[in-house]
């Protein structure tokens, strides 16, 4: 059984590679792979059909008792086969539906969803179930959002509803674990504690019910499903007919053993289900778009399934499962048939679709069979499942009247089902105008065959129903452990109330067909003035207005009020608490102060005063750098070489980046009146004194902690390394480091994302648009032709010393970086420090160029960041597979050296940090547009023009490679192919650290300028 999710995980990894070579034809090998995975799962399914429940379990988070546990039962088998077989058919359909191209996001997200769905239905751990539940939500969100701007708002609304369900399930998960004391799903469901705590049981039942209703689109959470029709038709056929909506149904079935006899569970599901069935049918008849009609019909059918699960009897569970199977077959096929009709007619509008009955007889036949099955016409599978639903609803808890009411409502919903099925067939194939030859479209045989497969497969099932007896038996045994009767399906049960109801539905349906012109016009008029998306938008706008009203307290752009509030509160806390607790604090440890501390304190105080009083931004940066360097000396005096080296390199890199950004800011700060500065000075003194008091009170008053002593004593033996700081970072607390590494990578990505949403004219406004010319120089410059003039106006002579320095220091720094990385496990060093040393080479190379050009290939920073994070994650997976715990290091001896996988983790740290620094230099260091010498601005006819890449262009190139100029898009649109620059032009934008011009001191020609 474990091979099933492993095989799908391998497909997740291989799909991007496959789409790179096969494009949209990737659907064929993926379909074959899905069928192969289904075959791989068959031995497990055979065990389940024999009455056994195979299990496997692997420790995941042992300290919390969380396992990667799988357990197969009848419920899991049914939903696994639905996900794999319908998924294979949809992939075949997609090979002709999708436009030519890679379509990587579609195939990859679909495979991720299948993996999440299969893991969801097979997992035997409550926490893993919740994780997989959320993964299905995320995958469906991205599959809808990938449709472009029309899909973005629907995707967000879908995420809103599924977020409610996820939050509800999260709370339920916490309560389940707290009450049962286990994360094992089977044990938690069968725990005897539920019978003894009815209040808690009711609470969890309601939470699980709400979570399931959000995913299965039950009222009032139903609007997301029709809204999600913005997604491509293959997405709708898979997610919204056979997969994601079935996740909600699965959750109800999975928890039925615990809650099937709880009144709150029965009332919630039966009431919501029947109401949804009626509303979905009514709204389906309101639609002109045949795809939205199918969406509302799905809502209606899911409502009937939900109501029957709420009944909770053996017959109800069997009927619900049978209709799940029937619905997955006919509805996935019908969604794909909508795509076929769209390709044939060029529209999905029922008022514009021509009469396709004669031009596409095969599609007409398939559509009739699919809609007949959904309408419950004998002898199709939908008829058998619909009669089973009617029988189950007659057993609704609450007395005989409850069963009759439920049956009556279900019959009414089924009449609506017949009506919208008739509207689909007649509107798409019979009632339209005669098609025009010149406007007729040719359909794809592959699409038609793929759409017909699930619909036609359900036809023979009606005559071999005994094949479904055993699978349904196992589902009932899993959902109702006390079940005693065996399931027996039959096409004919004799004359009974269910047959009478079916006959009544058909008679009314035929009458509707004959009077369809009036009936459909009535439903087109009988619409609400708003729909679900309008309701969500209204709620969103209300919340926005409420938030805007509350933001009056935090609205000012000036950060002063926020700082005053937070730091002032800290001061009040310190001033109030310190006198009370100071006498009870333990004494200070000995030898905390040294003479050098006094000197450093004085110097840091002077630097802080300069920082606070200077009006020059350059002076404040120098003062800030001085504070950092003095703090580094303080750390060195305390005997922490690792932290010292890290602090020193961080200070150096930070100051370089600040200086690059400084060119875009005014040279001086605003001058504020004394009436504003005096309160600020008082607040600063109070806050400083309070923090000093807290530091004195809360630090240096305890011995080394037990954890610290443990690291000192045990870390070298456990890790094989003498540098305890580094081994803590990459071994003992590697998960923390991975989180920080991810945040570091996301910071770089966030910089690119923000810059790529602002137009070039706002980031780097052209010099001619600046209302005032640049200020005159503070000192007079000698005339043109002199050395002083060239030093100010020409960049090339100024970078010669830096280029000579780079010639010597570049290789030394690179070698030092590798050495520091190599020795990090036993001596001061490691991946982070080594990456900062490597970044110094990048900084020198950037500063030593005469013109402002990006370092290296445009997309290199993002590749480095992604590779670094991926390497760290792969290291964790290696530990999970071979040591039983994520990020658990493996150790070995080879060639007289101690080797550990934590070095591979350190490689990830190195790459990510190097990528972030490269990104910072390339993006934040773009020259100011207003006559910055490094930017090579030129004055032509009284207008200053630039000959540099702007910030926006750099941000775009980080995503798409070399471009001919900045993009105007602000919503993530891709550049046109004509905007991309070829290889020769790309080479011009690269900066190299070698030059043939340094020897003679001549500036390079225009074509050679980047040789420097």
Automatic annotation (TrEMBL):
Residues 970-991 have a biased composition (Basic and acidic residues). Signal peptide: none annotated. The keyword Transferase does not apply. InterPro entries: CPA3_Na-H_Antiporter_A, MnhB, MrpA_C/MbhD, MrpA_C/MbhE, ND/Mrp_TM. Residues 966-1012 are annotated as: Disordered. It is a multi-pass membrane protein. Residues 802-918 form the Na+/H+ antiporter MnhB subunit-related protein domain. Residues 602-667 form the MrpA C-terminal/MbhD domain. The keyword Cell membrane applies. Residues 680-756 form the MrpA C-terminal/MbhE domain. The chain crosses the membrane at residues 74-93, 105-122, 128-146, 158-180, 229-253, 265-286, 362-381, 401-426, 446-468, 490-514, 562-582, 594-611, 618-637, 643-662, 682-700, 741-758, 804-822, 828-848, 860-887, 907-926. It is found in: Cell membrane; Membrane. Keywords: Cell membrane, Membrane, Transmembrane, Transmembrane helix, Transport. Residues 124-406 form the NADH:quinone oxidoreductase/Mrp antiporter transmembrane domain. PANTHER family: NA(+)/H(+) ANTIPORTER SUBUNIT (PTHR43373), NA(+)_H(+) ANTIPORTER SUBUNIT A (PTHR43373:SF1). This is DUF4040 family protein. The lineage of its organism: Bacteria, Bacillati, Actinomycetota, Actinomycetes, Micrococcales.
């Amino acid at each position: 059984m474990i091979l099933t999710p492993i095989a799908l995980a391998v497909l997740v990894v291989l799909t991007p590679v496959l789409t790179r070579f096969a494009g949209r034809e990737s659907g064929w090998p993926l379909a074959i792979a899905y069928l192969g995975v289904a075959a791989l799962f068959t031995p497990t399914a055979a065990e389940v059909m024999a009455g056994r429940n195979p299990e496997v379990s692997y420790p995941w988070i042992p300290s919390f008792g969380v396992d990667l546990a799988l357990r197969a039962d009848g419920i899991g088998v049914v939903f696994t086969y639905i996900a794999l077989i319908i998924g294979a058919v949809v992939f075949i359909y997609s090979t002709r539906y999708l436009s030519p191209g890679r379509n990587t996001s579609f195939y990859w997200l679909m495979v991720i969803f299948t993996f999440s769905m299969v893991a969801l239905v097979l997992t035997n751990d409550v926490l893993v179930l919740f994780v997989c539940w959320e993964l299905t939500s995320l995958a469906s969100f991205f599959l809808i959002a990938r449709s472009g701007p029309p899909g973005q708002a629907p995707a967000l609304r879908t995420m809103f509803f599924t977020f409610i369900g996820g939050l509800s399930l999260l709370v339920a998960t916490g309560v389940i674990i707290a009450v049962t004391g286990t994360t094992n799903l089977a044990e938690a469901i069968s725990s005897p504690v539920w019978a003894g705590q009815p209040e808690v049981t009711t609470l969890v039942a309601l939470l699980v019910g709400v979570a399931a209703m959000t995913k299965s689109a039950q009222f009032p959470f139903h609007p997301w499903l029709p809204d999600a029709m913005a997604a491509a038709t293959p997405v709708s056929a898979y997610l919204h007919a056979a997969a994601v909506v079935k996740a909600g149904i699965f959750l109800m079935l999975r928890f039925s053993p615990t809650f099937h006899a709880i009144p709150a569970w029965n009332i919630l599901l039966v009431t919501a289900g029947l109401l949804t069935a009626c509303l979905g049918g009514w709204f389906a008849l309101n639609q002109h778009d045949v795809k939205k009609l199918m969406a509302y019909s799905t809502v209606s059918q899911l409502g009937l399934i939900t109501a029957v699960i709420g009944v909770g009897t053996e017959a109800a569970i069997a009927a619900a499962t049978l209709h799940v199977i029937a619905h997955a077959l006919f509805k996935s096929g019908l969604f794909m048939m909508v795509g076929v009709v769209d390709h044939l007619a060029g529209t999905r509008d029922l008022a514009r679709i021509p009469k396709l009955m004669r031009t596409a007889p095969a599609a007409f036949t398939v559509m009739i069979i699919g809609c007949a099955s959904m309408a419950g016409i004998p002898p199709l599978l939908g008829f058998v499942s619909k009669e089973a639903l009617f029988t189950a609803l007659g057993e609704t808890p609450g007395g005989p009247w409850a069963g009759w009411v439920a049956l009556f409502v279900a019959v009414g919903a089924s009449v609506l089902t017949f009506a919208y099925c008739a509207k689909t067939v007649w509107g798409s194939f019979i009632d339209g105008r005669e098609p025009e030859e010149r406007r007729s479209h040719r359909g794809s045989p592959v699409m038609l065959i793929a759409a017909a497969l699930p619909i036609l497969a359900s036809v023979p099932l009606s005559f071999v129903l005994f094949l479904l007896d055993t699978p349904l038996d196992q589902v009932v045994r899993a959902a109702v452990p006390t079940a005693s009767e065996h399931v027996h399906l039959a096409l004919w049960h004799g004359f009974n109330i269910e047959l009478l109801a079916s006959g009544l539905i058909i008679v009314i349906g035929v009458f509707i067909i004959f009077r369809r012109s009036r009936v459909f016009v009535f439903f087109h008029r009988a619409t609400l003035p708003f729909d679900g998306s309008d309701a969500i938008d209204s709620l969103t706008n209300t919340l926005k207005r409420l938030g805007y009203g509350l933001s009056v307290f935090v609205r000012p752009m000036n950060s002063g009020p926020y700082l005053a509030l937070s730091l002032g509160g800290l001061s009040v806390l310190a001033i109030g608490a310190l006198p009370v607790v100071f006498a009870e604090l333990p004494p200070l440890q000995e030898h905390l102060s040294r003479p050098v501390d006094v000197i450093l304190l004085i110097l840091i105080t002077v630097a802080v005063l300069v920082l606070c009083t200077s009006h020059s931004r350059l002076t404040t940066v120098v003062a800030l750098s001085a504070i950092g360097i003095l703090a580094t000396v303080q750390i060195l005096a305390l005997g922490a070489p690792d932290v010292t080296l890290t602090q020193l390199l961080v200070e150096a890199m930070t100051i370089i980046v600040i200086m690059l950004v400084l060119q875009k800011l005014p040279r001086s700060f605003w001058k504020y009146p004394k009436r504003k500065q005096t309160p600020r000075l008082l607040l600063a003194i109070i806050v400083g004194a309070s923090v000093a008091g807290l530091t004195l009170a809360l630090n240096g008053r305890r011995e080394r902690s037990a954890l610290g002593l443990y690291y000192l004593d045990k870390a070298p033996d456990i890790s094989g390394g003498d540098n305890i700081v580094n081994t803590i970072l990459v071994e003992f607390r590697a998960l923390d480091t991975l989180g920080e590494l991810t945040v570091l990578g996301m910071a770089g990505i966030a910089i690119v994302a923000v810059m790529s949403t602002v137009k070039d004219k706002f980031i780097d406004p052209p010099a001619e648009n600046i209302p005032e010319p640049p200020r005159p120089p503070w000192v007079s410059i000698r005339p043109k032709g002199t050395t002083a003039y060239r030093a100010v106006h020409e960049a090339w002579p100024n970078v010669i010393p830096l280029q000579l320095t780079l010639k010597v220091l570049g290789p030394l720094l690179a070698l030092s970086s590798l050495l520091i990385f190599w020795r990090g496990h036993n001596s001061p060093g490691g991946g982070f420090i080594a990456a900062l040393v490597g970044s110094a080479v990048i900084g020198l190379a950037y500063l030593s160029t005469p013109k402002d050009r990006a370092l290296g290939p445009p997309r290199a920073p993002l590749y480095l960041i992604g590779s670094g994070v991926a390497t760290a994650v792969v290291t964790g997976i290696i530990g999970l597979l071979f040591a039983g715990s994520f990020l658990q290091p493996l150790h070995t001896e080879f060639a007289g050296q101690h080797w550990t996988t934590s070095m591979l983790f350190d490689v990830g740290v190195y790459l990510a940090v190097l990528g972030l620094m490269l990104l910072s230099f390339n993006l934040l260091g773009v020259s100011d547009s207003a006559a910055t010498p490094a930017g090579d601005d030129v004055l032509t006819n009284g207008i200053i023009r630039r000959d540099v890449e702007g910030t926006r262009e750099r941000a775009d190139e980080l995503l798409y490679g070399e471009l001919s100029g900045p993009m105007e898009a602000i919503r993530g649109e891709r550049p046109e192919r004509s905007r991309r620059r070829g290889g020769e032009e790309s080479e011009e934008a690269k900066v190299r650290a070698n030059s043939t011009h340094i020897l003679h001191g001549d500036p390079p020609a225009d074509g050679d300028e980047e040789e420097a």
